[in-house]
Amino acid sequence: MRWSVGLEAEAGRVLSREDVVELADAVASSDGIATGIGSSRYGAQLVVEADSRDDAVGKATAVFRAAAAAARLPGGPIVRTDAISEADNQEGPE
Question: Residues 31, 46: contact at Cβ < 8 Å?
Answer without folding.
Answer: yes
